[in-house]
Design brief:
Length: about 500
């Protein structure tokens, strides 16, 4: 059922078995997966079905660390969430991304890839992709396309593209028509209220911008509002506990991670005419059984190479090609800067974009600021930090890729140094907000457990990329949906 919260009587109490706050990829996935279980479900969504400026402005905040983007631009606050402008990039996290790595501080999820694999397979269908096949060798062999060869230090990964699926329009009618699901639009959570014991939730205090106030009471609650709003709600709910809800160990808001993007920041000066078709966007291979899907290959370093060098994960995508105006002959290492700086003397050159894993850092974090929104709730101050070690690690990784490219006789890779301006080396955001309510086995090291339940609050769950312990180097949507499917199964089991 669809309910406009602006039409509720002031002071209404909404009751349900399960309350889901946020109707983005995670919230919609959980609600859909629990249909037919007998649970009554209330979905609380701040916006309507379309973009509206007054609702969107509730996302405004301030960058106090790396100043790269406006918070009310990267996210969308209406039904479907940020899937309404998602580009559709899909790839699962690697097995090692879930593991504790000695060279990545604060790494190690309490679950592994094997446990998440069946949910990745379900997530593939939710984002309208085909088979869960990400083995680049298998797909390249099926297509008859070569991969870039190396001594074992290079690795090719496969990226699949969703159409992309707009969750708000694709799955809207299923939820609206379901008798066990009530979708409340224009409803904003102002406070998460605890029982007197302070170890479980009592209710949510909600309101509309038009002035209607109401409460939601449920047996269990799921926050599914994204990597910035999830911690904001918990931190701002500080009337009973000064540190906020689920923050007994001070972890809420910490470990904010992005995927630093260095777009067109490196150049592959090609030797000869290597077949790079596998690394270009194209229709999905028949073996993927994804008629609407597309795919492309990404270059990176193998696990063993990164472990040997102590490097985080990263991928290189091939962007535009610059055609030569004349044949410059064989490339010598000392010629690379001149080739990049003088386009008239180019051999074929491909621009490369780097997307990197960020090492979890407790000082990269979401805080509450002094400014408030239209409800009087503190706005976010986001202190996004990328350490110099992260920066140097990515540069070193690209150097190693370049060495493999050169050894294979395929050309040279050039990256700028700090005083070279031909290609800008500057981190840009991906809009991937992760880690602020991170998953951990030890309550002192995170906010939620392996089932996404808050360590401090027994009937509160958190969904979305805020629970990521580490983020790998790939877009988070497929993993968000897989984790949401897994959480839905858990909620059904304990109902």
């Amino acid at each position: 059922m669809l309910i406009d919260a602006r039409e509720l009587a002031d002071g209404t109490t909404v009751s349900a078995d399960l309350c889901i706050v946020g109707a983005g990829a995670a919230g919609i996935t959980i609600a859909r997966a629990l249909r037919g279980t007998g649970l009554s479900i209330a979905v609380i969504e701040s916006g309507g079905f379309d973009f509206e400026g007054d609702t969107q402005s509730l996302y405004s905040g301030r960058m106090v660390g790396i100043d790269t983007w406006a918070m009310d631009v990267m996210r969308l606050r209406y039904f479907g969430g940020t899937t309404n402008h998602w580009a559709g990039w899909c790839m699962p996290l690697l097995e090692e991304d879930f593991e504790e790595r000695d060279w990545i501080p604060n790494s190690g999820w309490p679950i592994g890839l094997d446990e998440l694999r069946p949910y990745y397979e379900r997530a593939q269908r939710r984002v309208e992709l085909g088979e869960f096949i990400y083995d680049s060798v298998e797909v390249a062999n099926a297509e008859g396309l070569p991969l870039v060869e190396s001594s074992g230090r290079l690795e090719t990964q496969l990226l699949q593209f969703s159409p992309p699926t707009r969750f708000g329009s694709r799955y809207r009618q299923e939820l609206v028509d379901d008798p066990d699901v009530d979708v409340y639009l224009y409803a904003n959570v102002l406070n998460v209220a605890l029982e007197s014991s302070e170890d479980s939730l009592s209710h949510l205090d909600c309101a509309t911008l038009s002035g209607v106030s109401f409460t939601v009471e449920a047996d269990r609650y799921v926050l599914a509002c994204g990597g910035l709003e999830n911690p904001r709600i918990l931190l701002a709910s500080n009337e009973q506990l000064p540190e906020g809800v689920a923050n007994g160990n001070g972890m809420v808001g910490r470990y904010f991670m992005e995927h630093p993007h260095y777009l067109n920041s490196a150049a592959w000066v090609l030797q000869g005419e290597p077949d790079l078709s596998f690394y270009r966007p194209r229709a999905a291979s028949d073996i993927l059984n994804a008629p609407r899907g597309r795919m492309m290959g990404l270059l990176g370093l193998s696990r063993s190479a990164r472990a040997a060098e102590g490097l985080p994960h990263f991928t290189l995508s091939i962007g535009r090609f610059d055609a030569p105006e004349e044949d410059t002959g064989p490339i010598e290492p000392g010629d690379i800067h001149a080739l990049v700086a003088q386009p008239g003397r180019l051999t074929p050159m491909a621009r490369l974009s780097i997307r990197a894993e960020q090492v979890p850092d407790p000082d990269s974090r979401v805080r509450l600021g002094s400014d408030t929104d239209d409800f009087g709730i503190p706005r976010i101050e986001l202190d996004w930090q990328i350490t110099r070690d992260d920066d140097f690690a990515i540069r070193r990784g690209v150097e190693l890729v370049g060495a493999e490219i050169a050894a294979a006789g395929l050309g040279r890779i050039w990256t700028p140094t700090d005083d070279e301006g031909a290609i800008q080396w500057q981190a840009a955001p991906g809009g991937h907000h992760m880690g602020t309510t991170r998953m951990s086995a030890d309550p002192s090291e995170g906010v939620v457990d392996a089932n996404c339940r808050a360590h401090d609050v027994d009937n509160l769950y958190v969904a979305g990329s805020s629970v990521f312990t580490t983020g790998g180097s790939v877009n988070p949507t497929l993993t968000i949906v897989a984790l949401a499917e897994r959480l839905a199964d858990h909620l059904a089991e304990i109902a």
